[in-house]
Amino acid sequence: MAKILSRFRLKNMSMLQTFILFHCLYLAAVLTAIVFEFDWAARLQLHFAGHPYGNDWVLPAQIAAMLLTVGIGLVIMGSLFYRLKLKKPLDVLMSASEKISANDLGFHVVYDGKDEMGELCRAFEKMRSQMENNFKALWRSVEERNQLNAIFAHDLRTPLSVMKGYVEFTAAYLPQKKISEEKLLETMQTMQTHILRMERYVEAMNSIQKLEDIPVNRRETAFALLTGQLDDTARRIAGHHGKTFGSRQAADSAKVFVDTDLAMQVFENMMANAARYAAGRIEAEYVVANGMLTITVGDDGPGFSDEALQKALLPFYRSEGPEASGHQGLGLYICSVLCRKHQGGLRAANGPLGGGMVTASFYAELINR
User: Fold this and answer.
1) Which residues cross the membrane (predicted)?
2) Alpha helices per DSSP H over 102-115
3) Dihedral-angle region of residue 277 (phi above 0 means left; psi in -120 to 50 means alpha; beta otherwise)
């Protein structure tokens, strides 16, 4: 019976269609059995017509047989309906629920039915996928926060150690008046310098905390208008540092759907970083392809060292040299965070002809012309 019913392609039928099919088959089978039972009862009545005990018992037996037939038919059809239509998807969903309860999201809900249970399994798989993505994002955020706290604690350790040493020095020699006024003023100025340094670090940490709360407001923007704004900003930053600027662009769509303010903030940080290290020229390239807006900023400076390529996107990282002074080393880290909020990313590399090159990508949700 199960093999016969499977030929109806039950997976492609809705629950209502399958229910109607099963009931039609059930009624056909029960009515056929009842017809045979009527014939059986008629023959029994004829056979026991002259029997001493009579044939009065035939009618109750016939009624009992009919009720038994109806009951057995219901049980069989219900069992087949459960086995062929419900058992497999319910097992799949139960197994998925147990894995989710155990915080195991590394699986897939697979059921190829076209009915409501198939839709439910696909919805469950969509929910599992979203939970997995959210869990990974949360885990990545926690890891980044732990890493940021470790870097922050490491960078604060030096000024705190220096201040502790000066406090111990002052506490030991000031009561004995073994410190000259000039030395005392020098010590106080040094301590003030380190206090200002710690204040800057705290302000930097606060600014990083606020990055997570920045909303992404995408809107339709003409690609030419966006690149024009980027070029104007780039020429201003490059001119302020005494550098020249040039750009090129390529796009498979005249419009993009991005947060222009967020993209501009990332670009300004990339330009400021390039302007510090460029010898005299900064180049930018704007590309729209495959649903992504990609902005690359390169310079003709010394490029990234091997260490910088590994740590350039970390917070508070500053390379050696005079160009690195005067900033907290947060520019590229901020760019990286903002790009990820826009479903993109940031990558640092060295150009084929030398010089540093930073590429930012944003999910642009392309709009056809």
Assistant:
1) 57-82
2) none
3) alpha
Question: Burial code of 108-119, b = ≥16 C-beta within 10 A, e = fewer?
Answer: ebebebebebbe
Note the pLDDT of residue 188.
81
Tokens linked to 336: 């990286």
Which residues, 6+ apart, have CB-to-CB distance to 369 below 8 Å?
A: 253, 254, 255
Q: Which residues contact 46 (CB under 8 A, 6 or more apart)?
A: none
Q: How far apart are CA 78 and CA 325, in angstroms?
A: 78
The two beta strands, 345-350 and 281-289, are: unpaired
User: Using CA atoms, how far apart are residues 155 and 172, in angstroms rounded to an integer?
Assistant: 27
Residue 80: partners with Cβ closer than 8 Å, 6 or more residues away: 1, 2, 5, 22
Residue 194: CB partners within 8 Å, gap ≥ 6?
159, 162, 163
Distance between CA atoms of 92 and 95, rounded to whole angstroms? 5
- Out of 1.10.287.130, 3.40.640.10, 3.40.50.300, 2.40.160.40, the CATH code matching 137-211 is 1.10.287.130
CATH class of the domain whose range is 219-363: alpha beta
DSSP secondary structure of 311-368: HTTSTT---SSGGGTTS-S-HHHHHHHHHHHTT-EEEEEE-TTSSEEEEEEEE---B-
Q: Tell me the C-alpha distance between 309 and 303, whole Å.
A: 9
Strands 281-289 and 292-299: antiparallel
* DSSP summary character for residue 13: S
Residue 231: the pLDDT is: 92
Q: Rounded CA gap, 200 and 181, in Å? A: 29
Beta bridge partners of 347: 359
Residue indicated by tokens 């880290």:
333
Cα 334 from Cα 204, distance rounded (Å)? 11
What confidence score (pLDDT) does residue 224 get? 92
pLDDT, residue 200, reads 67
Quick one: tokens of 176? 């004995």
Sites in the chain below the pLDDT cut of 50: 1, 322-328, 368-369
In degrees and rounded to multiples of 5, residue 95 shows phi and psi of: -65, -40
State the helix-helix crossing angle for 58-81 and 15-47, rounded to 10 degrees: 160
